[in-house]
Amino acid sequence: MFALQVLVVTLLVAIGTAGAFLLARSDAHNAAVGEVTAVAEAIARSPGVAEALRTGNPTAELQPYAESTRLATGTDFIVVMAPDRTRYTHPTVSLIGQKFAGDVDAALRGGTVIQQYRGSLGDSVRTVVPVREPDGAIIGLVSVGITTEAINRGLLRQVPAVAGSTAVALLLAGAGAWLLSRRLRRQTHGLGPAEMTRMYEYYDAVLHSVREGLVVVDRDGRVALINDEGRRLLGVPDDSRVDRPVAELDLPTEAAELIASRRPTVDEPVLAGDRVLVASQSETRFEGRTLGTVLTLRDHTELRELTGELDSVRGLTAALQAQAHEAANRLHTVLTMVELGRADEAIELATAELALAQQLTDQVVGALDEPALAALLLGKSAQASERGVELTVSDDSRLAGEHMLPSRDLLTVVGNLVDNALEAVALADPPRRVRVLVRQEQDEVLVRVSDTGPGLTPDQAAAAFRRGWSTKPGAGRGVGLSLVRQVAERYGGSYAITSGTDDHGAILTVRLPVRTP
C-alpha cells in the first residue's frame, strides 16, 4: 500500500512538474514575442530611423544605434532593412548588405510578422514591422529577434527553483503517504488487503450461519450488526437497515432495554413477542479501549414448553403413583370387607370412591369443550392432590369449542396461573385451596384463578407480571406470569391481581378478547 501511494504521488508530482515546465516555456515564448514586438515597434517609430533611411548610407547611422539598443534590451539581433530586404544593420557585420532571410510580406503590406525561424544566428523568435513616412508610405523594415537558445537559458535559470519545489513536494507527499500507511496498518492491526478480504469473507459467513442470534453495538450506541438468526428472534425485517441507534429500531421492549443498559449478563431470560430468549451480553475491549457490546440470543421457547410439559408429566406421574397406592389400599379394604361377609358395605364404599373420582372429570369435561384445557386441568388436579392442595373448577365455568382462541395461548394462560397458585398455597397453612374459573362471555374469555395462599402486597401485585419478578429466590424464575402478560397484550386483553379476602390470598384475572364465528 505504501509503495503504491509513493508511486502515485511520484507520478502526480512528475506530471505537475512537467506541466509547470511547459507552462513556463510557453510563458517565456510569449514574453519573448512581446519583448521583440515592443522593441521593433519602438525602433520603427523612432524619427531618427526614418531620417537615416532617407540618407545615402543608412548603415553609418543605424548600425551603432541598433547595436546599442540590442545590448540595452537584451535581444539577440536588430536588423533594419530596405523594403527589398537588404540589410542595413546586423550583429554580424559581414552580413550587412545581404538579403534578409524570412517572410516579410505581411510587414510590406503594413502588418506585423511574428514567427519562429531558423536564420543566420540559428532558431529565433522574431518580429518584423514596417517603417513609415508621415504619409504612410513604407520606406523600410525593422526585425528584432531573440534566439531559442537564449530563451532556453532563461528557463534553465529557473530549474533549481523548480527542482527544489519538486523535491520538497515529493518529500512531503512521501511523508504523508508513510504516515497514512502507518495509520492504516495500525487500524487494521497489521493486516494487508488480501488478509482483510479473506477475514471479512469468513467473518460474514460465520456470523450469518451460526444458530445463535448476535447483536453488535458500537461505543456510540448504534447497532452495527444483527445476524440472520438475531433478526428472526427479534422480529427485525431482512431488508431493514440496522446502522441506527437502538432506540430507532423496533426491537422488543426487554431486549431493547438490555441492549441500551450495556450491563453484562449471562443466560438472562428475555421475552420477545411470544418467544422466551436466553440473553448473554458482554463488553468488548481491545488494547484497553472499549469497542462496544455483544449480545447473544438463544431461543428457549420450545425448550421452556417441553420443560413445562415434562414437569406436568412428572407431576401427573407422581399423582398417579400416589393414587395407585391409595387405590390399592382401598381395594384391599373392599376385598377384606367382602371376605368378612360385609358385601353391601364393600359395594357402598367402592361406589362412593368411584363417584368422588369421577365427579371432577365429569364437571371439567362437561363444562369445557376444549379437550386440551380439560386434560390440563385434570392433570393439575392430580398434581394438586399430591401436594395436598384441593383444586376445584368453578361451576360457572363454560367454554364452547367455537371460541376461536388458539389452544396454545389458552394453555399458556391457564397453566401458568394454576402453577403460580399451587406454588403460593403449597407452604401455606390449611386449608389449601385453588379455584379455577374459565368462562366464555360475549366477546372475551375470562380466566380467573384464586388461592388461599399468603397473598401479595400492592407493590408485589404491581410487579408480579414483570419478567424476572418472583417471591421465591433462584435463577430462571419470574417467567410464567410474564408469558401470561404477553399473551394478554398480544390479544389486546387485560391482566390484574387483587389481594385476598377472608378466604382468598390472591385472585389473578385475565381477559382475552376473542373473535366469535
UniProtKB/TrEMBL annotation:
<dbReference type="InterPro" id="IPR029151">
    <property type="entry name" value="Sensor-like_sf"/>
</dbReference>
<dbReference type="Pfam" id="PF02518">
    <property type="entry name" value="HATPase_c"/>
</dbReference>
<keyword id="KW-0418">Kinase</keyword>
<dbReference type="InterPro" id="IPR033463">
    <property type="entry name" value="sCache_3"/>
</dbReference>
<keyword id="KW-0808">Transferase</keyword>
<dbReference type="GO" id="GO:0000155">
    <property type="term" value="F:phosphorelay sensor kinase activity"/>
</dbReference>
<dbReference type="InterPro" id="IPR013656">
    <property type="entry name" value="PAS_4"/>
</dbReference>
<dbReference type="InterPro" id="IPR005467">
    <property type="entry name" value="His_kinase_dom"/>
</dbReference>
<feature type="transmembrane region" description="Helical">
    <location>
        <begin position="161"/>
        <end position="180"/>
    </location>
</feature>
<keyword id="KW-0067">ATP-binding</keyword>
<dbReference type="InterPro" id="IPR004358">
    <property type="entry name" value="Sig_transdc_His_kin-like_C"/>
</dbReference>
<dbReference type="GO" id="GO:0005886">
    <property type="term" value="C:plasma membrane"/>
</dbReference>
<keyword id="KW-0812">Transmembrane</keyword>
<keyword id="KW-0472">Membrane</keyword>
<keyword id="KW-0597">Phosphoprotein</keyword>
<keyword id="KW-1003">Cell membrane</keyword>
<feature type="domain" description="Histidine kinase">
    <location>
        <begin position="301"/>
        <end position="516"/>
    </location>
</feature>
<dbReference type="GO" id="GO:0005524">
    <property type="term" value="F:ATP binding"/>
</dbReference>
<dbReference type="InterPro" id="IPR000014">
    <property type="entry name" value="PAS"/>
</dbReference>
<dbReference type="InterPro" id="IPR036890">
    <property type="entry name" value="HATPase_C_sf"/>
</dbReference>
<keyword id="KW-0547">Nucleotide-binding</keyword>
<dbReference type="InterPro" id="IPR035965">
    <property type="entry name" value="PAS-like_dom_sf"/>
</dbReference>
<keyword id="KW-1133">Transmembrane helix</keyword>
<dbReference type="InterPro" id="IPR003594">
    <property type="entry name" value="HATPase_dom"/>
</dbReference>
<feature type="domain" description="PAS">
    <location>
        <begin position="199"/>
        <end position="269"/>
    </location>
</feature>
<keyword id="KW-0902">Two-component regulatory system</keyword>
<dbReference type="Pfam" id="PF08448">
    <property type="entry name" value="PAS_4"/>
</dbReference>
<dbReference type="Pfam" id="PF17203">
    <property type="entry name" value="sCache_3_2"/>
</dbReference>
<protein>
    <recommendedName>
        <fullName>histidine kinase</fullName>
        <ecNumber>2.7.13.3</ecNumber>
    </recommendedName>
</protein>
